[in-house]
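Batch manifest line 373
LIGAND: zinc ion
JOB: complex structure
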Amino acid sequence: MFKFRSLKKKFLATVAAAAVGFSLTFGAPAVASASLLESAIGIGLQGAALNAQINENIKLFNETEQGRQALYQNFRQKYGVSNNAEYNAMLDRVMANLTRSVAKIDPTINDKPYLYFVSAQESVNAACSMGHVMMVNAGTFSKLANEDEIAAVVGHEMGHGQKDHVAKGSRKRVQKLVTASLAGAAIGATVGGGAITSAVANIALNHSIAHGDRKHESEADMLSLDYLLNTNYNPGACAAVMQKFVEMEGTQGKRSDMAKFFNPSDHPDSDKRRDAYVKKLYEYSGKHVTAADGVITIDKKEFIKVAAADNMSGAERSYFVLGNLAVAYHKGLNKQAATVQNGTVMLGNQPIITPAQGDEDAYTIAERLNAIK
Ligand SMILES: [Zn+2]
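JOB STATUS: finished
ARTIFACT:
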């Protein structure tokens, strides 16, 4: 039978090796599968006993401080660390704000704070692995429009983290991989369990595992919006990011590196995810406010068509106006007058839109808002 203590000893030996030269291999699953075949046959593990050992390895990476620190170091080594001061400062702020917000909904975050970093990768990408190990690519900061959008992406990752999606997904995936390799194999002598530890680490480090299940993806999306609603970030940022992806997929093709990650083949499309967010904001506003194709509608009456500005298309930017209006209606501020303060249209004390070139002027917008709200 499998013994936790002896595995822990082997695991820590692997982790120690990782600290100096990183002995865990980063091959494709097929490579891991070959080494697993040898070692699992050697150990003579099958079925339930093998699954138990896989599960214990996942637990070590996911729940022990040594395990998650090792995974964190391995992530930094594999993907590189960005020294961009602006990106790092922004991620620190986003993590502080969202950690406070998540703690109100799910206090378990206090027991397992996130180990995060800005990776050196240039693609629009982020991942949350086992043990609340998280990275956001430098490319995400350079291509998204603002901090609110970064918060929307990070909130999605924290949704995966809080619901333990990677550990749950990995268990099934690793078990399947090993079990398939073992089919019809002879059962032999003795080999250590280090290969299984390596295989689990491999899978944890492969960031496609972070976004690997359609149901998990939808759950993480909605959690991100819940988390943002407890902060000062604009909750429309979630839909805006999806709109950005729709537009990027349009120019780069559906199977670009970005699309593969945020939108693997068995996942809901970005436009459907955007529409799910819009529906939730509509409900949050008390079923008053919605947006489509850059046009904001209040109580079924057209309010404004939003112009492109601030590194966003009109459609992307319109979701920020929608987010502001949803918050105002949710707080009952629609009972107060719309005004213009320093060039910004306000509803009560809630900013709604600061007109840019191409938008109508603030007084025209405020007047229409007062007429239809
Ligand atoms: Zn995801």
